[in-house]
Amino acid sequence: MAYLKGNLHLHTIFSDGSQTPEEMLTIYHDLGYDFVGFTDHDYLIRPHYWEGIPESNGSLIVFKGLELEYPPLRYQHIGKILGEEETLFVFNHPQQYRLSVAEVNRQIELISRDMPIHCLEVTDKGVYTKVYDIPEIPLPKIASDDAHTPDQCGMAWIEVHSRREKDAILRAIKQGDFKIGLK
Ligand SMILES: [Zn+2]
Fold first, then answer.
1. pTM score, two decimals?
2. Which of 21, 70, 86, 105 has the most CB atoms at less than 10 Å from its CB?
3. What CATH architecture applies to the domain 3-182?
């Protein structure tokens, strides 16, 4: 099995990003990625979002998803990535909320009453936040761009040990069978 390179956090004109889904796919395709996931903000989403995301772009695997706001913890964002049967939930950018490690663990515990949290994003808009990449937070750690514009693409990624199939990729991430990459 190969290592597949991907980014599972990005935005388009369907929320607060600057590019269309097609334009983002072209950028990541040209950067040599194997998969990307679209995660426009649930509270900003424009009509026709789901059908506005292409099913694929050549060999590039495309995941559809959302970035959720979790109302009980008002500003906490959660990435939701849809496979065929699998769904991946990501606790996003704790750095943006200046959360302590104890607060991260407490929030994950609270959110887990409503949805499972499978991994933690240890980047903030593509910049590595080492303070959260520690065993005290007992989840796989992923890196992503959270790209809103072209210049934010290709900063941080994961390389997943998986077959080229959506659910296999998400299962491998849940199992921590990947490494993170930083520009
Ligand atoms: Zn985002």
1. 0.97
2. 21
3. Alpha-Beta Barrel (3.20)
